[in-house]
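Give me the fold.
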Amino acid sequence: MPVIHPRKWVCFEPGCVPIGSNKTKWYYYYNQMVIVVMEARMAAVKERSRSEKQWGGVPLKGDTLVQEIRTGFPFARFDELVSHIQMNKKELASRLRIPGSTLMRREKSGRFTSEESDRIYRLTKIIKASEDLFEGDTAAARDWLTRPAKALGGQCPIDMIATSAEAQMVEDLIGQIDHGVIA
């Protein structure tokens, strides 16, 4: 809020101007615009942080995530992931390096092992990052994930989740593309 001095000057950051001048009006409207922009940015940050808490039923950070990976994701998470990226269960399982017979056993038992859950989490994280890269376009993200990338040695990004190092390479590539760095 502006401060009115006894000499009829209004102080705004970065300086003071006389009341009634065009600068006074400009500073007032400028400050109002800054307030509106900051409120919009704060709302966007709140929305982003709310959407980052969970994606596809998988918490993306925190103690809950660690506990769920250690105990193993329920099979329902895999079904949610399959329906979200619209892939065949067997194809997705092979990309996760889970044999078909093991997938059937996991479906009967209702839970994955911690190692398999870790790979599912890596895939979930990469899918979310690629969807963010393509501004929420799931089809474009899926196409990019299943197409060989020169920066990854000709491998498909979705096939590089077996180890954390490979997943990190994919995440780095997504970050480079997002920031306009030539990969």
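The longest strand covers residues 9-11.
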